[in-house]
Amino acid sequence: MRPLRLQLAAVVAEAFEAEGLDRSYGEVVVSARPDLGQFQCNGALPAAKAAKQNPRALAEAVAARLSSTPAFREVSVAGPGFLNLSATDQVLAAHARATAADDRLGVEPAPQPQRVVVDYGGPNVAKPMHVGHLRAAIIGESIKRLARFLGHPVVGDVHLGDWGLQMGMVVAELARRQPDLPYFDAASAGPYPAEAPVTAAELGELYPTASQRAKEDPAFAEAARLATFELQQGRPGYRALWQHLVAVSVAELKADYGRLAVTFDLWLGESDAEPRIPPLIARLQAEGVARESDGAWIVEVAEPEDTRVIPPLLLLKSDGAALYGTTDLATLEQRIEELRAELVLYVVDKRQADHFLQVFRAARRTGVVPPEVGLEHVGFGTMNGTDGKPFKTREGGVMRLRDLLDLVTDKARERLEEAGVARDYPSAEKEEIARLVGVATLKFADLSNHRTKDYVFDLDRFSAFEGRTGPYLLYTAVRIRSILRKAAAVGLSPGPFVPPTSDAERNLLLTVARLPDVLTGAWAARTPNVLCDYAYDLATAFSRFYQDHHILSEPDPDRRASWLSLCQLTARPLVLVLDLLGIEVPERM
Ligand code: ARG
Looking at ligand 1, which residue's alpha carbon is closest to its atom 10? Predict the structure, then answer.
C-alpha cells in the first residue's frame, strides 16, 4: 500500500500536470507548521521559476484544482507560493483502515534488498566488557533489526577481539603465575586438559594486572609480545589455552548480551580471518600493492585530495605479527567471499574513524572489496556520567556492563515500587518487569541521542515514568493494551474506522501514518534516534487523544468501536518501533 504522504503527493502531481508542469513538483512533506496544514508542497516556487511564471499565481491555480478533489479538506497558499494542505477526514479514516489491515502497517519492504553485515559489539576476550562496548551493542542491534524489518537479508557479527596483544598478555601473565601448566611446555604438542585453567572472574582480573605489569616491566612486555606472536604462529599449547580463554569469555558475553536482548547471528572473531592473512599478504606483496618499510609491510592509503596526512595501513610488523587493520582487511575478504556482503556496517566508537578510513581505502586499493560494495563506519560518541566524564563506577573505576545492568534494574525496581506499579503481581513477574524497564531505561537513553553525540547518562532522569524516557513508552504501550482488555471485559470490541472529528484524533492518525517515512529515514542515515523521536510522538499523540476522548463511556457505538480500533492501531507501530530499538514491552505493568 502507498504511504499517505505519497498518496497525497500523487494528487498534487496530477494538479501540477494539469497546469502543464512536471509531476515532480508535486512533492509533499509533513508540514513544519501544523497550525497551517497537515502537509505542505513547496513545488510551485521552482515550477514557476522553470516556467517563468509568477509563483504565487501558479500556486493559486494548483490550489484551486486541489480544492475540488476529494483528497483535501483545506488548501491554502502562504507567502510567495507555499501550498498548505490538509487531507479530508474520509481520507484519514480510509488510510487507517488500510494500515490496520496490513501486516506491515503500510511499510513496503525495500525495493532493492541488500545483503548487509552489521559488525557490532566488538568485545575483547579476556577484557571485561565495559560501557564503551555497550553503545556498540545497543546501536548495532537496533540498526540490524531495522534493516531486517525493511527486508534486507542481514547478519550481525560480534567480531570478537580474540587475536590481539591482550591475548599474549594473558598468556604471559598466566605463564608467570603457573609456569607448570601443560600449556607452557614448549616441547609438548598436547593433549591438553579439557577443563579451563581459569574461571571468568580470574580471567577478568588477569588482563588488567598483566597490562599494568607490561607498563612497568619491559621484560614482561617483551614476553607478552612474543606470546602473541607465537600464538598467532600456532604454538599448540598457546592455542589450546587460548581456546579455553575464548570459551570462558564467550559464555560470559552471551549472558550479558542476553540480559540486554542483543543477539548475534555470527560469533566470529578476529582470529577467524587468520587463515586468510598469509595468502592475502603474499598476493599483495606479489602485486606490489604492499610495500616494505623498515622491515614492516604497509599499504599506502593517502589520496591526493587529502588535507591531512593519512598514514598507511600497517599489514605486518617487522616481527611478522599481524595487526588490527590486517585482520579487518582479511575479515572483509571473508565477508565478501563467504557472506556475499553488499554492505558492511561497522558500529564502532567514532574515535576509530581513522582506522576505518585506512581499512576501507586499503580494501578498495587492494581489490579486496569491489567498488559496488558499501563500507561504512557507523561511529558513535561517548556515554558520560553527570560529571561530564566517561561513565564510571562510584569508586571511579571503569563500569562493567554487568554492573550497569544491575544498576538500571535496581533503579527500575525502586521506581516501580514508588509508583505502585505491578504491586500485587507474583514476584517473578515483578522481577521480569524490573528487568525490562531497566533495559528500556538504558537503551532509550542511549538511542535517543544522535549516535555521533556524546551524551550524559542521568539515571534519575532516564528512569522516570514521565517525559522522553524508555519507561514512559513502555507504560504507554502497556496502558493501551490494558484499555483494550478492559473494553473486551465489558463486551466492547473494535470496529470499522469512522472519520475523525477532533484535532487530537487527526493528529494521532497522521502520526501513525508517518511510520513508513520514519523507518526509511532512520535506515538511510543509520540513526535510531529517529525511531525514538517517533515513538515519543506517537505516545504523546495517544495520551492527548485519550485525555480528550472517553472511549469506554462514549455513547455512539460506531465512534466507540472506531476509537478502540485506533487504540489497536496505535499500539502496533509503538510496539514495532520499540522492538526495532531492541526494547521489549511487558504484557502488563
Ligand atoms: N574489539 C574492538 C575494540 O574493542 C572493536 C572491534 C570493532 N570491529 C572491527 N571490525 N574492527 O575496540
Answer: 328
Verify whether ligand 1 is closer than 6 Å to residue 342 (CB atom): no
Classify residue 295 as left (phi > 0), alpha (psi -120 to 50) or beta. left
SS3 call for 508? helix
Helix H or strand E segment including 571: helix 557-580
- Kindly give the distance from the C-alpha atom of residue 163 to the centroid of ligand 1, in angstroms, as a whole number: 11
The answer to whether 333 and 273 have CB atoms below 8 angstroms apart is yes
Q: Which three cell numbers stand for residue 189?
A: 604438542
pLDDT of residue 319: 83
- Does 122 sit in the ligand 1 pocket, CB within 6 Å? yes
Separation between Cα atoms, residue 284 and residue 154, nearest integer Å:
30
Count Cα neighbours of 517 within 13 Å in the Cβ-side half-sphere: 16
Q: Ligand 1, from 118, 127, 134, 159: best to mutate by most atoms within 8 Å of Cβ? A: 159
Report the alpha-carbon angle 234-238-243, nearest 5.
95
- Indicate whether residue 119 lines ligand 1 (CB < 6 A): yes
**Beta bridge pairs of residue 293:** 296
Say how far apart CA 112 and CA 475 lie, in whole Å: 37
Ligand 1 atom closest to 359 (CA): 11
Ligand 1 center to 571 CA (angstroms): 37
Element (H, E) at 299: strand 296-299
pLDDT tens, 287-330? 999 999 999 999 999 999 999 999 999 999 998 888 899 999 99
Are the CB atoms for 119 and 139 separated by under 8 Å?
A: no
Sequence-ordered list of residues with C-beta below 8 angstroms from that of 355, at least 6 positions apart, any chain = 324, 325, 328
- Spatial strand order of the sheet with 296-299 comes to 290-293, 296-299, 313-316
> Which cell is 463 given?
528512569
Q: Is 394 buried (19+), middle (13-18) or exposed (0-12) by CB count in 10 A?
A: exposed
pLDDT of res. 399: 78
Residue with CA nearest ligand 1 atom 6? 122
Q: CB within 8 A of 570, min separation 6: which ones? A: 480, 508, 512, 538, 541, 542
